[in-house]
Amino acid sequence: MQQPSHQKWMHYVDGNKKLFELTIPGTHDSGTYPSDLESAKCQGMTLEQQLNAGIRFIDIRLTFGFDDDGVLWVAHGIDSFLGLSFETDIIGTCKKFLSQNPSETILMSIKNESLTEKWGDNAKFYGDLSAIINRSKTTFYLKESMPTLQEVRGKIVLFRRFPVEINMIPGTKPHDPPRPATPILANNGLNIYNHFPADEAAPFTNASIKYYVQDRYFRWSGGSNRSEKFTGWVEPALNKAAAVTEQDTCYINFTSATGRSGGILPFTSTPMDLAETVVPLFNNYLSSNPPNRFGIIPMDFPELKPYLITQLIHCNYQNPMVFPRLRNRSNGAEYLNFDGKLHHIPSPAIAANLFKKDWDWQSIPNFNFTPVPAQTGVPLLNGRLLSFSGRPELYICYNIAGSSRPVLRHILNPSTQNAYGLFGTINPVSEATKGNYELQPPISWQ
User: Fold this and answer.
1) Does 143 fall in a domain?
2) Among 40, 69, 248, 310, who pairs with 79 as Cys (CB 3.0-4.6 Å)?
3) Share of the chain residues as helix, strand and coil, in percent rounded to the nearest 5
4) For residue 156, what are the β-bridge partners?
5) Residue 35 sits in a domain of what CATH number?
6) Are 211 and 249 a contacting pair, CB within 8 Å?
7) pTM here?
8) Cα–Cα dist 95/247, whole Å
9) Rounded to an integer, what distance in angstroms lies between the CA atom of residue 196 and that of residue 193?
10) Do 294 and 221 fall within a single domain?
11) Cα(302)–Cα(283) distance, rounded to whole angstroms?
């Protein structure tokens, strides 16, 4: 089944909320989709597909290439040749997505995956990375303070999983102080490098921000029961994040794991093997529990359950009735929401009259709800769009059961037209016929 599309879901989130107050679907080792190694491949969707599906936290591991040219490449442990350039394929894809969806933000964790990290070459990594990010610095949020969503709409938020080390060279003149040999960042992003737990779940604090990370990826089981990754590690962290007393902490809860300790021999469980057990358990958890703040959830192969990402997105909305367009996924019924009521669109023909033909209902959150009669109001019968000849104003026109005259309501501004997707066929009529309609107040969208 094709993944539901959620390109603009953050548009409907309160911009005053800090990022740690949200439930944010993410992917672990987000750039491994080109890999041919089952032990290294963690994603089946491309980065573009991940973002379109609603993923907003991406986990990027980088290494050096063969040439000392400042280019960094996506890597994952033993598979260091995935063919994805950090600047072109990762930043470029993110910038394109954000330019098309400026209401969104992308949280990007960056880690030095090169073997040279252990040989003391962190300064070169930091220098090369800084040069790349500085070329796109207007797209990045690099402060060390936790932002609100409004502060970072249209931006990439750096979650730093690398040390800040700088190569210094002597001054050009005697007594000149040393200076950095490579470009450095003005700020270094949110620091999750220091105290990040190694194959563990633990709290820590950096720059006055409290974090809790669950990343038990090897020692998740004493035997070979793959469900223990979820029941023993993921689920307790979900419950902890949802607790009222934990709301000032940024939770990062990895559902991913590998099989190094999941059986007798190494790699007896690949990331896909684990995901085939963990993803359904996680999906069932979300279906069985009320929506809540669960934090950042990096996952392997979330598409194994097509509505898993959708369920996580829905955790950010307290009241689905605020949306202008809704679909009841259980029965396919479609509604417009105005006057504080849901107005049922009773037939595909009416939808075709009102909306552009290529409208994707999944481009806004798609809630599964059962309206009661008090919410549904009256059906929107014979709905269509009208304009009066020679005038630019656009109107929605519909009939009410038992009324002899159709209702006419001005669509107040372009934001209302966009929110409702009212781009169907516009029927021009004579100004002289205005008396045939029952004029009611305009409809508007905030």
Assistant:
1) yes
2) 40
3) 30, 25, 50
4) 106, 140
5) 3.20.20.190
6) yes
7) 0.76
8) 31
9) 6
10) yes
11) 9
